[in-house]
């Protein structure tokens, strides 16, 4: 959420209601709400989509809630799927043909004690909307809009917090974060993505719920961290992570100066989460065990893991030194670095080092069009065999590696005649 969008928060409930009146809600959802109303039930759209609509942004995915129990929903609608019926969620298939949509409808509910820091021990279905909203995490996510009656429900001061730019827990913040450990990470993520600040009591409650946070799967934490690092100013979420203690649970503990430098550097880097995460790990890059332990704990994809490992490797340090060297020799050193690092990381490595335009141009000039793998050589193993210079086997691979080394040193050698001549020299 941008600063401009935050400034458009409605001034009062009347303006908020009028803004919601102008929001187009998908016809499939409206059909479900109308069917509920005809049967005497109360249905609303809730959560983040309402918040975004109040700020003039695209509502995106609309969550629907109702006082109808799952069994009543199944009896009311002819086509349903018991998606998460134990938690009160039933998917209603609304419309037909190309207009057919799956609408997730969740019963107003209360929740029992959270034993694992993520899921309640029991779910109790309720009839009152405000009781359902009371279990939500943040006030800005606790809105409900009834488009049929044109009623906006804001039971916990969400509009006031939107205007003030505050991230505040619903009700007792200590209770909210003790229920669900992921809420702490969501709070700092919203601080970054919406450019809001944490309310003092909410920030204090996060610091008191770290043991509950530790129970949350790292996959879920990674999702929130990636969203935070994709924001325009990730520092708005990273500083609260540090002050609340979340940082040391997710990333490498750092001295305050190194941590603050890493945070501020993230704001300057392109909004690529893996690049920014590499910068946060940069101060501990020489401790490979620590880096890989943190990375693996976040359960990244193989590509993401490879990127983080490469971008925190000593090769990037070598690149920082190489671009400062004079010619001759500088370009060859840069090519050797990227032959091992992979030229696909040139942009991220340059950004991570915050190289100036001249240094970036030096790197591009050195590697553009250059052969950095044996597959890019102008000669293949079969050519060497046909010329009688090698036989199939390990020595053929050694010879090709030696030819690549010669081409990295002098790219003009990457032609068949020169490579065959170099092969003869190597064998002679």
UniProtKB/TrEMBL annotation:
Its EC number is 2.7.7.72. The keyword Cell membrane does not apply. It is an enzyme of class 2 (transferase). The lineage of its organism: Bacteria, Pseudomonadati, Myxococcota, Polyangia, Nannocystales. Belongs to the tRNA nucleotidyltransferase/poly(A) polymerase family. Keywords: Magnesium, Metal-binding, Nucleotide-binding, Nucleotidyltransferase, RNA-binding, Transferase, tRNA processing. Gene3D superfamilies: 1.10.246.80, Beta Polymerase, domain 2, cca-adding enzyme, domain 2. This is CCA-adding enzyme. GO terms for biological process: tRNA processing. It comes from Enhygromyxa salina. Residues 373-422 form the CCA-adding enzyme C-terminal domain. InterPro entries: Bact_CCA-adding_enz_type3_sf, CCA-adding_enz_C, NT_sf, PolA_pol_head_dom, PolyA_RNA-bd. It comes from the Bacteria. GO terms for molecular function: CCA tRNA nucleotidyltransferase activity; metal ion binding; nucleotide binding; tRNA binding. Pfam families: PolyA_pol, PolyA_pol_RNAbd, tRNA_NucTran2_2. Residues 196-251 form the tRNA nucleotidyltransferase/poly(A) polymerase RNA and SrmB- binding domain. Its cofactor is Mg(2+). Residues 45-168 form the Poly A polymerase head domain.
